[in-house]
Structures are given as structure tokens and as C-alpha cells.
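Researcher: I'd like a structural prediction for the single chain below. Treat it as a standalone chain; there are no partners to consider.
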Amino acid sequence: MNRIFGTSSSKKPKPTLQDAIASTDARVGSIEVKIRKLDGELARYKEQMSKLRNGPGKDAVQQRALRTLKQKRMYEAQLSQLTQQTFNMESTALATENLRNTMATVDAMKRFLCDWPPELDALALEEEEESTSYLADLNKAPDFIDEPPVEVSEHARETPEAIKTTG
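Model: Treating it as a single chain, here is the predicted structure.
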């Protein structure tokens, strides 16, 4: 097929996550400008409505103000959605960066273990033997003396005779 139709000579690189974040931020900026513009229009309509008497002129201005307010709410909803989308992309970028850092740390630890000096091997073996002998000593320690459990009645605080052993 490529012989007949050929291939495209310029292949654009795929957009990265940072490119997508920048693009979304640019759209957020343009929507914020539109919202500010609509705020100005709403303030102007409010001023006009305060000067007019009740009647068809005021009703027309009120209808335009309501349409403008609906537009503003739509833009605010889009702004909220884009802000959430940007947050999600930034969280993903952070998680990806943390994963890369973790992989680099693991690689460094593997390289260190490959270059582990033999002297440290002997030291680690001695520490292991010491901890093993310590655990063995703990296992040989006598168990606690088996005594019957002590039951305390409600009057134990008042009289020492209230404490009795159960058997």
C-alpha cells in the first residue's frame, strides 16, 4: 500500500502529558477571560436595570442579563471541569515521576549489591550469627511462672480481701 499512496514525510511526535496540561491551562485562561467579559456585561445590565422603570425596556434588558448569566454559568462549569482535568493529569504526571524515581533507586541498589565488597559480606554474616544466637537465647529463657489468673470484684478498690484467685 505504501508504494501506491506513499507515506507521510513528516510525522509529528505524540503529545506528552505536559503538553496536554499546558493546552488545558491555555483553555482555562481563555475561559477565565470570557467569564470576566460576561461579568462586565452583567454589571452594565444591572446598572441599566436600576435606571429603568418597570416596563418593556426593563424586561428586554432583564432577558439579556439572564441569557448572559446562563452563558457565564456554562463557562464556569467548563472551567471547573477543565480545572479538575488538569488536576488529574498533574496527579498522573506526579505518580509517573515517582515511579521513575523508585525505579532509579531500585537500579542503584541493585548496582550497589553487585559491587558489594567481600569485607561487608563477612560483617553481615557476623551480624546474622549474633542475631541468631540472641534469638536462641530468648527461646531458652524460662517461661513466666504459671499462676492462676486473678479476678477483681467491684469492691476491690475498697477492700483488699475482695481479690480472690480462680482455679
